[in-house]
Amino acid sequence: MGLSTERKVFLAILGLAGLSLVIDQGFLQGPDEAGAGILDLSQVIDEPIESATADLASSIKASISTALNDRLTKAIESSDLSRDPSTLFFEPKPIPEPTEDPKLTTITSKPLPTIPTPTLTDLPTLTSCMPSRTGQSGAILNGKLYLVGQTTPEGFTLIKVIERQAIVERNDREYTLSVPAKQ
Questions:
Q1: How far is it, in rounded angstroms, from Cα 54 to Cα 33?
Q2: Which residues pair with 178 in a beta bridge?
Q3: Helix, strand counts (H, E) of the chain
Q4: Phi/psi class of residue 172: alpha, beta or left (left: φ > 0; alpha: ψ in -120 to 50)?
Q5: pTM above the 0.85 mark?
Q6: CB of 177 closer than 8 Å to CB of 123
Q7: Which residues partner with 61 through β-bridges?
Q8: Long-range contacts of 62-68 (CB under 8 A, 24+ apart)
Q9: Could you tell me if 152 and 165 are in contact, meaning their C-beta atoms sit under 8 angstroms apart?
Q10: In whole angstroms, what is the distance from residue 183 CA to residue 113 CA?
C-alpha cells in the first residue's frame, strides 16, 4: 500500500519546513523566540499621513522637474542655436498650405460596375433532390443532374442537398431552392 499523491506532497512540504527551521536555528543563528512587542507612543509619528505623502510627492516632483530641465538644457545646447529655443520642443511647426500644381490633372473615378443580383426568374428550377450520407448528394437543376460542388452554366454552385431542398451559391450569396409541392 503506497502513499497517495496528496500525502506525498504534504510530507514534502513538512520536510522542507523542518529543514528550513534547522538551517535558521542552527546555521543562521535566528532568534530564539518571535513575538509582537508593545509599541511605545513616543515612536509614533505625530504628523498626519496626508502631510507626509504630500511632502514625498513634492520632493519627487521637484527631482523629476530638475532632471527634465537638465536634459532639455543639454538638448538645446547641443542643437542648432540659430533657432529660438522656446519653439524647439513645445510649439508645433506650421503646416504649409497646399498649392495647386498646374502639372497635376484631376482624376475622375468611374462608378463601379454593379453585379446583377438574381431575381426569382434567374434562379435554377429544382426538380429533384437526392441527398446522400456518403457525400455524393445531387440535385436536378434545370433538367440536368449536378453533384455537390459542381456549377451550372449560369454560375450557380450546388452547395448542399437536403430533403426536398438544395442550397446553391452565386457571387457569395446563398439561395435555398425547394422542390415544388405535388398538386
A1: 39
A2: 165
A3: 3, 6
A4: left
A5: no
A6: yes
A7: none
A8: none
A9: no
A10: 43
Q: Which residues contact 79 (CB under 8 A, 6 or more apart)?
A: 88
Q: Considering just the CA atoms, what is the radius of gyration of the chain in Å?
A: 43
Indicate the residue type of 171: N
Adjacency order of strands within the sheet including 138-141:
126-130, 138-141, 144-147
Angle (nearest 5°) at CA 76 between 74 and 81: 135
Phi/psi region, residue 29 (left: phi>0; alpha: psi -120 to 50; beta: rest), is left
d(CA 82, CA 64): 29
**Domain residue limits, the chain:** 61-91, 126-178
> Looking up cell 430533403, which residue turns up?
163
d(Cα 179, Cα 23) in Å, to the nearest integer?
Answer: 86
**Which residue in the block uniquely carries the three cell numbers 519627487?**
60
Are 137 and 147 spatial neighbours (Cβ–Cβ below 8 Å)? yes
Q: Which tens digits make up the pLDDT trace of 150-166?
A: 999 989 999 999 888 99
What does residue 6 show for φ and ψ, rounded to 5 degrees?
-65, -40
Give the model confidence (pLDDT) of 99-145 as tens digits.
Answer: 666 666 666 667 766 666 655 568 888 888 988 888 788 999 989 99
Strand partners, 173: 170
